[in-house]
Design goal:
Order of helices and strands: HEHEEEEEEHH
Number of helices: 4
Number of strands: 7
Structural class: alpha+beta
Shape: elongated
Mean pLDDT: 87
Helix content: 25-40%
Distance between the termini: 69 Å
Largest sheet: 7 strands, antiparallel
Radius of gyration: 19 Å
Strand content: 25-35%
């Protein structure tokens, strides 16, 4: 190889190293979606915040079990999830409840390589007791510029389809 190619490869490695070490200010939002469901905020909150129910509405989740049955649902509660991921097959990871404010908000974080952080916020839809807006945010705790500019666009594509299916399933479960 010529010296020019070696210099180019060295420069590329330096740029990748810098992008990997430099971090953006906040967790990058991979996706944010909103849906209106036909039931009370309280009923929907307790259904979606109980992660044992996630396999009923989120695609490709095959199994969810609580790590410790003696701990009630709340901050620090841990679940073991099995999910099918394209290119990786079945993956098992731990999901931890990181915020829990019934019946309005909860969030979870996973120990997967994506380090996903999911937030679900509920509010009455147009002051109705029988309609609820569910706002779902998927973030990643990976904050390097390299991850943000290479993986986040691919994850947006992947999660857009999965979220569409998940929110459709929730609309179906909470139909009147």
């Amino acid at each position: 190889m010529s010296p020019t190619i070696w210099i180019g490869l060295a420069a590329l490695c330096i740029v990748i190293g810098i992008l990997y070490q430099q971090e953006i200010e906040e967790d990058p939002i991979i996706l944010q979606k909103k849906v209106v469901l036909q039931d009370s905020k309280t009923k929907i909150f307790y259904f979606v915040s109980d992660l044992k129910n996630i396999k009923k509405w989120f695609p490709d989740v095959s199994k969810v079990k609580e790590e410790d049955l003696s701990i009630p649902i709340g901050i620090g509660k841990r679940f073991v999830e099995n999910m099918y991921l394209p290119l990786f097959g079945d993956s098992e990871y731990v999901t931890t409840m990181t915020a829990y404010d019934p019946p309005s908000y909860f969030s979870t974080s996973t120990n997967s390589w994506l380090q996903t952080h999911i937030e679900i916020e509920l509010e009455p839809y147009e002051n109705s007791k029988d309609q609820t807006s569910l706002i779902w945010r998927i973030k990643s705790r990976r904050t390097s510029y390299l991850f943000h500019y290479t993986m986040v666009p691919l994850l947006k594509l992947y999660y857009t389809g999965k979220s569409r299916q998940a929110l459709f399933n929730l609309k179906y479960l909470f139909r009147k």
